[in-house]
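Database export, one record per block. Field names are fixed; values are copied verbatim from the stored entry.
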Amino acid sequence: MLLARKSRGQGLNRYAVIGNPVAHSKSPDIHANFAKQTGEIVEYGRIFAPVDGFVQAIDAFILAGGHGLNITIPFKLQAYMLATRRSKRAEAAGAVNTLRFDCIDGRIDILGDNTDGIGLVTDVEMHSCVTCKGAHVLLLGAGGAARGVILPLLERRPRRLTIINRTAARTFELIERFTAFAQAVDCILEGGAPGVEHGVYDIIINATSSSLNGTVPVFAPASIYSNTLAYDMMYAAKPTVFMQHAARLGGRTSDGLGMLVRQAAESFFFWRGVRPNPTPVLTELRATLANC
């Protein structure tokens, strides 16, 4: 990287979201609202990076005076590898969605965090009026989205966390990775391929990409009862197919727009040391989405 040999550029408190694609991202609007709300003076934009040009894009951003980045697909693993220091939740997830660049003795220290999980559990508990403590939770998927939320879920002390994925081997990798965390909070951690579900669940989280292509992830219909919250980490102007399916089975539903805003608030705090109120921003975004 160039950042070890060149001095950092001067400028505004610059932040951005970097990804491929990235034009659809609502992060600039969210952080502009946070800045206005808190009185923080920041500049926030979008950076499209070639799949093989992530490090070069980071260099250019830092040299132009960049202070921090939100990371979206497909760069969360690369961001994890790039970070010189990582938070506990980033280490546990093995992925980073937020970077902060600190200048220490003329060199850049890159601190990585993962705010996805805290965004999810906060939205589930505050917006959806559900408690994770003592709950039976079913997590659909074992990819990067799932990895980022497991530790924050376990820290809320659910009674049981079941992870299912089409590829059982990936599920078992996650179970091995998080077994010690689960044991520390007396949570039963189990999983495998679809079909391992046991009984009903208080919370079902769709961490797969199924909603992007209009399909429903495989899980037992008997997993849902009238108080089950079916939470899709994706969001759209209308309920996702997962949410529609869960509603037909009698469950309550929520999409991931609240997670998006709340994880952004955690990123803002990570960068600025000021915690914005996500509720009015979420309300405004929800209204905008409804009019799309």
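Remark 1: Confidence is low (pLDDT under 50) at residues 2-11.
Remark 2: Residues 168-184 form the longest helix (17 residues).
End of record.
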